[in-house]
Fold:
Amino acid sequence: MHTDVSTVTITILLSDENSFNGGGLRLENGSIYYSKKGSLIVFPGSMKHSALPITNGIRYVLVFFVDIDLVN
Structure:
């Protein structure tokens, strides 16, 4: 598990969810998310997370690292 150096991390699944096996996103609280093509997951970059292994096929994911600097 790791954290990202971002305020927010966004992942979007580009592959059809039936073209691979495995590859869920595991968060530090034990939750595991399996996306559908085109769906996105947004979570704090400081939250520990990891990707589960791909056991068959290829998974393409687009990841954004967003920094938010709030100025009063």
About this structure: The mean pLDDT is 94. Residues 8-66 form one domain. The chain has no helices and eight strands. The beta strands are 8-13, 20-22, 25-27, 32-33, 40-44, 49-51, 54-57, 61-66.
